[in-house]
Amino acid sequence: MSQVRLILALHDHQPVGNFDGVFEEAYRTAYRPFLDVIEGYPEIPFVLHTSGPLLEWLVDRKPEYIDRLRRMVAAGRVEILGGGFYEPILTMIPHRDRVAQIRSFSRYIGENLGAKVRGAWVAERVWEQGLASSIAEAGIEYTALDDAQFLRAGIPADDALGYYLTEDDGRLLKVFPISEPLRYNIPFREPHQTYEFLRRLADHRPGATVVFADDGEKFGSWPETFDHVYNRGWLHRFCEMLLGNRDWLETTTMARAVDATLPNGKVYLPDGSYREMTEWALAPEAEAAYRRAVRRVESIDDGGEVARFFRPGGSWRNFKAKYAECDEMYTRMLAVARRLAALEDAGTADPDYLEAARQELHRGQCNCPYWHGSFGGLYLPHLRNAIYRSLIAADNALDEAEARSGPRASIEAADWNLDARQEIRIENEHFIALVRPAQGGQIYELDARAALTNLLATLDRRPEPYHAAIRDAAARSPEGNGSSSEIGDQWGSDGSGSVAMKQSGLENLLVYDDHPRKAMVDHFYPIDASPEDLIAGRSIEQGDFVGGAYLARLRREAGRVAAVLERPGRAGGHAIRIRKTIEAAAGSPTLSVTYELEDLPPDACLHFAVEINLAAMAGHAPDRYYSDPSGNRLGTLDTTLDRPHTTGLSLTDEWLDLVVSLGWSQAAGLWCFPIQTVSRSEGGIESVYQSSAILPHWHVRADERGRWEVRIDLRIASSRLAHSHDAAHLPALATTTP
Predict the structure, then answer these.
(1) CATH code at 173?
(2) Which of 34, 292, 350, 416 could hold 423 in an S-S bridge, CB 3.0 to 4.6 Å?
């Protein structure tokens, strides 16, 4: 009889920083039950990639699972794939880190599972040809990528089987095509459909090797799949189907296939990923145009042949252009990587601290929050916070490696975010602030070093393609019954199927920002502006300072540094000038910002507001709250406030042991409201609290010199310490009315 080799490969992954309960739930519904079933079929070998963050958790929390895997590895029943330790998109990180992550993960797998690693999983199957040399240099023989990338390289569909050789810089790598039909069949359709696909393959291509490789969470963790795969017995039926056809169907591993068969030839693959990922990387307008183009291609005669060479979507790297927040994390990561590499090459720093910094850097390269598609990813604050936590910890370790300790303050200008403009980095032993003079003189990152928290890890509200479906669902269901509104097919390989509205009224939250949600954003509003105007996203701006370019100069004094930013502009129809001085002192946890408004009209009143968006703290939890300068609690951080006369405000997160206290030298009105996005994940579409918008605002009148001035102090402290003297650090209540 004709024979087909089938490779079954699962990719199990949880990102750095994911909630422990999510790990537990995925273990209970997918990882453990899959092993429970497959152990009963010793004749069926399989391939498993367990990402580093998940494997570390399993080693620590589920030693019995690790023992079971070790026994299966020893028995030759499972092949373990390696890869980047903390599941980075390999194209995103420096070559040095690619090699280091792969090598360190191979060592870790050997130590804990007793497996010799020969193959690697490429995170999200994001491929660029230069990866071949990095992966091979790290000691890897083979990997697997989507078959669509082989088709676009000119390989006929019937030949997208077995494995091919590719190379970069003279280093060879073997690459298996992953079958898209199998990704859509397994485990969503009945085993008989997979049988028919494999039977046709055996008849037309005897001796072929075909690969199924996809997320292990599909086997129980995705909505409704636990009941389908286990309670209704899909996995048992699938295994029985494989055993019942052993006369022509052989299940095998990548290692065995490489050892038993020859490569089909050499191929150079175009840049890409799986089809859905390349679509998500497009801007919304481009994605809509792309989908129209796809439909046109599909409608023409012989459209399949055309589609073979039709490049799907865009490059993964364009997530950094699509989402500024992705680019901010990326450039911050690169800065840490460059600093670590320089210290390693110099050979003078403490090696133990360098190793600690390296591990934290690698954790900060975990891919999940750097993009968004059918999963929360970038939209999930706890995943973004985990990236910054690791990068800040790496910076702290590098300070230790250089023996930098004690009170200090420094300031430096460079193109920190790779936008061909100079940014300013201000730091002391308590915090690191990054300032963009070219974009409104805004502070776009503020790291609390002890709490390992970026207080400005915010997210702008922006349109997403699936927002149209939310509006359509709301129009069909005027009552807003989110429990019955669904988008898409029941299951799709990208996870986009059966996406339910997890709450009603989501269409009312589809408000989009016209400026970054950062700190020290300078606004001029109508005199009668209200917080409702801002919450509704109404365009009421009367100044041109929000995104305008400020000229900057650096000032260094003994134990004190400052960035002095200046800009002439217009406010309420008047020409004025703003000087904004951002200052830090050695030993002080307070970042001070002084505003000097000059050339003010003598007979006019301007409504001036400074927007400060603070993130990285949960919105609706009893131990995260606002309080006034007297220590009185004002509500959780998703509360809307409109206070007519204040001199300050504190935000406390007891879980992070963090309090951020704001004080202003002139009494102000105060508006606070939550910034919530609407995004989709495996479980459905929901709102997510991203940050708290805090806007002290003043009715400004010129003094006899045509000037007005206010100082804003932002102090970072331990919440336990702050509770003992809540108001001690805030300015005294001013007598000037706003």
Answers:
(1) 3.20.110.20
(2) 416
Pair 622, 631: CB distance under 8 Å? no
Q: Are residues 626 and 652 in the same domain?
A: yes
Q: Output the average pLDDT for the chain.
A: 92
249 burial class (0-12, 13-18, 19+ CB within 10 angstroms)? buried
Please identify, among 205, 240, 272, the residue that sits at the C-terminal boundary of a domain.
Answer: 272
Cα–Cα distances (Å) from 519 to 493, 610, 615, 646, in that order, read 40, 8, 11, 19
pLDDT tens, 587-633? 999 999 999 999 999 999 999 999 999 998 888 899 999 999 999 99
CB 582 within 8 A of CB 520: yes
Decide if 94 is inside a domain. Answer: yes
Adjacent-strand bridge partners of 555: 562
Higher pLDDT, 724 or 116: 116
* Residues catalogued as catalytic: 124, 215
Residue span of the structural domain in which 161 resides: 4-272
Contact predicate 49/81, CB 8 Å: yes
Q: What percent of the chain has pLDDT over 90?
A: 84
Residues 527 and 505 in one domain: no
| pLDDT value, residue 734 | 37
For the ranges 113-117, 272-276, 403-407, the lowest mean pLDDT is seen at: 272-276
> Would you give the distance in Å from CA 421 to the centre of its chain?
24
Do 266 and 165 lie in one domain? The reply is yes
Query: Cα separation of 124 and 319, whole Å?
Result: 13
Same domain, 644 and 523: yes
Element (H, E) at 120: strand 120-121
Percent of the chain residues past pLDDT 70, beyond the cut: 93
Q: Write out pLDDT tens, residues 76-111.
A: 999 999 999 999 999 999 999 999 999 999 999 999
Q: What is the CATH number of the domain that holds 702?
A: 2.70.98.10
